[in-house]
């Protein structure tokens, strides 16, 4: 394959992150190409959030790191950060910070809220919304910025089952869309999750982590159907019961 999609979004070589004595990432080598939907799974403390922070450029890492900086990225967390103002302003501010005129930002924010089904509560203080609604506002905010890459750290972990399904459906929708560069540039998604059903539904590739290392890195079908390293097999078995 040739063209821009053949070159990776990121290329990590032997990347290590230390917090004092803790090795949060241990010589991680990883290449992610545009359009991939990568799920990070593993026990608490295995390094999923640290890897997402490295991918988002927020962690102090050693090793080789190459990134296509032409691709815009956005990140979502388990608990979204909402400012004490309307849902619409929360989205509009993100656009305004990127240089959009306030009036246009407000209009685009409304369109983004429509896309996540929240136009009805656009004027409501975002801090008073439910967890699921706040996560949808966070998705609208990310959406409005037209990122090429969406990073999500356990985006549905603190939500009730109904809100989980709604947010998951929006993630699927997001993953099926494309970045600002056009239809030839599908969105790349990297997310961590404890929900293996969700991983099966959303991911094209699954990475199992343990003690900061990538223990398995497989296409989704192989991860759930093929042989796995023993630790990963036990993890999958444990999470599914
Ligand atoms: P996960 O997201 O899989 O639960 P993390 O990436 O949060 O794992 O953590 C990996 C390891 O790094 C854990 O041992 C955790 O305690 C440690 N760690 C993460 N962030 C920090 C930090 N800011 N300071 C010290 N230790 C940290
Ligand atoms: Mg984490």
Which SSEs are present, and which pair or pack?
Blueprint: E1 10-19, E2 22-32, E3 37-41, H1 48-55, E4 62-67, E5 73-76, H2 87-97, H3 102-115, H4 131-144, E6 149-153, H5 161-175, E7 188-192, H6 196-202, E8 205-210, E9 213-219, H7 220-225, H8 230-240
Parallel strand pairs: 3-7, 3-8, 5-6, 6-7
Antiparallel strand pairs: 1-2, 1-4, 8-9
The chain binds adenosine-5'-diphosphate (ADP) and magnesium ion.
Residues 48-49, 153 line the site of magnesium ion.
Please give a structural write-up.
The chain is built from 8 helices and 9 strands. It has 241 residues and is α/β, with parallel strands linked by helices. It has a domain at 10-81 and 148-236: P-loop containing nucleotide triphosphate hydrolases (Rossmann fold, 3-Layer(aba) Sandwich). The longest helix is centred in the C-terminal third of the chain and has 15 residues, at 161-175. The protein starts with 9 loop residues before the first strand and ends with a helix. The protein binds adenosine-5'-diphosphate and magnesium ion. The site of adenosine-5'-diphosphate has 11 residues, from strand 2 and helix 1. It is a peripheral membrane protein. InterPro entries: AAA+_ATPase (IPR003593), ABC_transporter-like_ATP-bd (IPR003439), ABC_transporter-like_CS (IPR017871), MetN_ABC_transporter-like (IPR050086), P-loop_NTPase (IPR027417), PstB-like (IPR005670). Residues 10-236 form the ABC transporter domain. It is found in: Cell membrane.
- The tally of helices reads 8
- Helix coverage percent of residues? 25-40%
- What is the CATH class name of the domain at 10-81 and 148-236? Alpha Beta
Radius of gyration: 18 Å
Q: What is the H-and-E element order?
A: EEEHEEHHHEHEHEEHH
Give the oligomer, counting copies of the same chain as homo and different chains as hetero: single chain
**Helix vs. strand class:** alpha/beta
- Termini, distance in Å? 41 Å
Mean pLDDT, nearest integer? 92
CATH homologous superfamily classification of the domain at 10-81 and 148-236: P-loop containing nucleotide triphosphate hydrolases
Beta-strand percent range? 15-25%
User: Stretches where pLDDT falls below 50 for ≥5 residues?
Assistant: 1-5
Major sheet attributes: 6 strands, mixed
Say what the CATH topology of the domain at 10-81 and 148-236 is: Rossmann fold
The CATH architecture name of the domain at 10-81 and 148-236 reads: 3-Layer(aba) Sandwich
Widest beta sheet: strand line-up: 5-6-7-3-8-9
Number of strands: 9
Query: Shape from CA axes?
Result: globular
Which ligands occur here? adenosine-5'-diphosphate, magnesium ion
